[in-house]
Design goal:
The complex is a heterodimer of chains A (257) and B (514).
Chain A (H helix, E strand, L loop, with lengths): L17 E12 L6 E12 L3 E5 L6 H8 L7 E6 L2 E2 L5 H10 L1 E4 L11 H11 L4 H14 L15 H13 L5 E5 L7 H18 L2 E6 L4 H4 L2 E6 L2 E7 L4 E3 L2 E3 L3
Chain B lengths: L13 H14 L1 H38 L1 H12 L6 H7 L5 H13 L5 H20 L2 H8 L4 H10 L1 H14 L9 H36 L4 H6 L4 H9 L5 H25 L1 H11 L4 H8 L2 H11 L8 H20 L38 H4 L2 H27 L2 H9 L4 H39 L3 H4 L3 H32 L2 H7 L1
The chains are: A alpha/beta (257), B mainly alpha (514).
Amino acid sequence: MSERKSENAPPPPPDKPVVIRTLGLRKQYGEGESATHALRGVDAVIGRGEFLAVMGPSGSGKSTFFNMIGALDAPTSGRILIDEVDVAQLSAAELAFLRCRKIGYIFQQYNLIKYMTALENVTVPMAFAGVGGDAARRRGMELLGLVGLAERFDHRPVEMSGGQQQRVAIARALCNGPRILLADEPTANLDFKTGQAILDLLEQINRERDVTVVCSTHDHRLLRLCDRIFWVRDGRIDRVDRKQDVTITAGSIGGGG
Amino acid sequence: MSPIEAKDQAPLSVGRCARLALSGMSYRLLRSGITTAILALAVAFLVHVVTHAIWTDRAQGWAWNALEPTRTADAWLTRLTTPDPVAQVRDSLGGLGPAAADRTAEYTRWSGRDDADVALGAARRFHAVQAWAERLTPTQSAVVLGGLDVSAWLSRLAQQPTARARLDQQLTALQLGPPGAAGRESFDRFVREDWPRLSRAVAEIRDHHAQAIDRLRAADTRPMLRRFLDPGPTLYTQLRDAGFEIREATYRELQAYAAYRQVVETVAATLQDPERRRRVEVRAGSADLPAVMAFLATRRGAAWWSQDVAGAAEDATARDFLTAGQRYTREQRWAAATEGYEPRRPAAPDATPGNKANGEAEPQDAAHGGAAEVTFAGVLPTATWWLVGLSLLVCAVGVSNALLMSVTERFSEIATMKCLGAMDRSVMQMFVAEAVIQGGVGGVAGVGIGWALTAGRGLWELGGLWVHGAASWPAVVVASAVSLGVGVGLAAAAAVGPAWVASRLAPMEAMRVE
């Protein structure tokens, strides 16, 4: 494992219990000369209940970072600790357990299962958690109610708009009561207004349920909602801003600090 | 909001798996349909080949038995004009079954002299030697018999003492027991004394047979068929007087058969007349005897024939034509069905009393009709097994490909499932469940199609669903169940590979694969 520190000092630890911690995270695709270095040593600390935005241009390594902290992909070197447990130490079944109970995922492409209705999609993770039948359906309906789609429970993804699909995905991500919600560009495929609704929903979930939300995005509206911003560039965390450090004007930002 | 009850990461229940697989399949109806259809075809082929073999075998045995009266009648009509061939005399003398018993009584009478019992004993020993020779492997048979049939071989042994000595060496070298279960010395005596005596007895029997035929002909010079048509027991008495051992029941069957043959011959004779032939051709579509008889097998055809075609000299009625037409058509079909059929011979009698079944009765000696004895390996010729194996292989490749495609195009779905907490095992379960459902549906459909094919082919080749009455249902059911199992197993086996690969992938790798 590389002990080389990134150029920047690690982000200051927040004043909350640590949920996710990464140490010297590196990821490289391919071998030798042609290797692509998606992450070049990332140290980050994310606290409980934070609303975190990960920003950066395309190809900067945001998605890779997102996948790493979601335990969806293994790093080339470095460590990821979720609730202070090293993900690399977990067995396949324990990883499944982690993905099922502790983390909720929201994708840019929604990734709903095409042949299932909204309610079925929401209950899939509960089936994997061993909750089935009426209990799962009741909870699924509650969550669909939360995202405002209770009356559309019987629709399949093709019969729903992007915003509605994303809301089903959020309901699905919440169904096993996760501590962490990872959203990978959740608004990138949505129009302005729908995107705003999704962001509001994420913020509401963050506030009401004390769920840590990590959101990789290009959407500058998020800057107003989040507690901290990681600026990722070239496989490294370039800068960490707190919300109060950023001045926002309509449609553009001026970075501070 | 109610807190969730956290249990362990649970494997999917069977019902849940089936539901997931079914909803997935209904979404990909076309692909699932094609996979199912491939499986159905493979199973159908297997079921059809095996059940057809079983059914055909049964049907042939049935048809063979059904033709027995006709064969007996034909044999009787022949032996009323020609003495029995040597081999037949030898085989019937002391043979098994009621027919052979009658024949033995007749032959014993004809053998005339006081050594009838000796001839009978010699014949029984000959049967034992013959049975022994049949049990030899082809190599042993080639060494011992030297390509001769058993009677020629015995004659040579009887004439050449050197051949007898050589036989001793051969038997020792091949580690074979003496021919015909009795000791080697007893065999030696049989060859030197009984065999020539048997040959003499057979010649004598044939001589007497020829004399009996002459006596019959002296009484009445009309052809035999005509004489059978006479009412009353005149011919029967003449037959008994001439020395033929014929039962009254057999005689009546012969009369019925003669009447039927007479009608057929009348029809054949009528067709020789060009004028009438042309009229028949117009009406029946063809003037070939089988076609005309098939036409007569209909009420309409028989009536037309008896009114418009039959001459005044023919005293047959429409009913006679109808019966004859039906019998002729039926027997033609049965004859076609039994073409190449080898009836299973009853076990050869043993020479030495007290040494009856020596424990190594061959399976084919078992009476025809034991369902349990039908083994698949025995039912099909080797070439067909190759065909079955190859078709299954092709089907396996097709199904693997279909399932591989199905897995590949679902990588992102699998990745999503894994993000949502699916264990590797659950992913496997879902795909194998899907394959098993497809295999089951395809298998059941395949069994149905296979049966339909067999029924259709039975109808086409053997002329009727009566074949199924002769079917061995247990064997057919077992064959179908095995085929169904093969279908499901094939699908499951084909699914395991791709599903294994898919379940091992890290979620993000799986998403990237697309």
